[in-house]
Amino acid sequence: MKKLIFSLFITFCSTLTPALAAERIVNIFNWSDYIDPSVLEDFTRETGIKVIYDTYDTTDALEARLIANPGDYDLIVPSATTLQRLIQADALQTLDRKRLANAVNIWPEIDNRLRRFDPNNAHAVNYLWSTIGVGYNAAKLKDRAGKPIVSWDQALRPEGLKRFSDCGVGIADNPDEILPIALNLLKIDPNSKNLDQLRRAADLLSGLRRLVKKFDVFDYSNALAFGEMCFAVGRTGEILQARARAKEIGPDTDIVAVLPNEGSLMILDNLAIPRNAPHVNEAYVFIDYLLRPDVAARNVKATNYASGVETARNFLDPALANDPALYPDQATLARLFTVTSADQPTRQNINRLWTSVKTGR
Q1: Helix H segments across the chain?
Q2: Inter-helix orientation angle 344-359/175-185, to 10°
Q3: Domain CATH for 271
Q4: What is the pTM for the complete model shown?
Q5: Which residue in 141, 227, 274, 311 is a FRET match for 157, CA 20 to 30 A apart?
Q6: How many domains would you assign to the chain?
Q7: Full domain range(s) for residue 195
Q8: What's the pLDDT tens digit per position in 200-250?
């Protein structure tokens, strides 16, 4: 686990009485590389609150740490399905939006989507969001694709994907994000928890195994950027990061991000306060800071994920603010779907099916 400590306290505090000089702290648990580090530094500079910042790489790590050490953190960043499970486990505090002056900046469209997981938006606000999309190296696919990538048929059926296998194909190693796409392609409710329907989706994806160079949680982003792969299915935010990284390596490299016409999964990452948080007041101050449009825009630029703060776009370069892979238009937004958390037996079935997709066993 990585830990960053930002302590930019004003030195005159040492001259105050012990009660007044008590150090203010906020303990944050977030995904790796999921914030602009200068935001943390500026927050401490503006508020005097020291940030202790830990990171995780899987939702399982977040849930396990929160259950094992419920008083370690003041603020966490769970996905929507993780948020749903934590609410059911009574592991989170109710969020008082009256304490968040910048809550007026929350994007109603995204807030409404989040309500499916957090009834009445009682426990969380959205931090960043993304989708599942297709990323490819334009030059390497020019002679292979035959036509632009517009459909999931070109990415998730063997007859479409086989044209790209010689230059390297990657798929995100996450059944919760990829199986719903396959269900939707088969014209099945992507939120289905029916085992027979899930098997049909897994069977479709199993046909891709010999064509896929690697299933990986996030490394497809680097592989695209460095030319180790030419085609990937995964989080659009990660694909856009690959595009930015590739431009740094070689200005002529063009990584294209696409949301296929059939629609896609919307991924919502959110801000929530654990039930036993030791520094609740400081957590509210930090959440409110992140809801400032100028601060939210900095995190968009740093991560290539869209913000749940609607007016953050006003602080972005037009090319980024108007990128349809980052901020889809209204028609595309209408085709985005969300998927709720499955119960434990269904999750076990999904994991077994996913293992079969990757290994054939």
Answers
A1: 37-47, 59-68, 80-88, 108-114, 138-145, 153-156, 158-161, 175-185, 195-206, 220-225, 236-249, 280-290, 293-303, 318-321, 330-334, 344-359
A2: 80
A3: 3.40.190.10
A4: 0.92
A5: 227
A6: 2
A7: 130-266+338-359
A8: 999 999 999 999 999 998 889 999 999 999 999 999 999 999 999 999 998
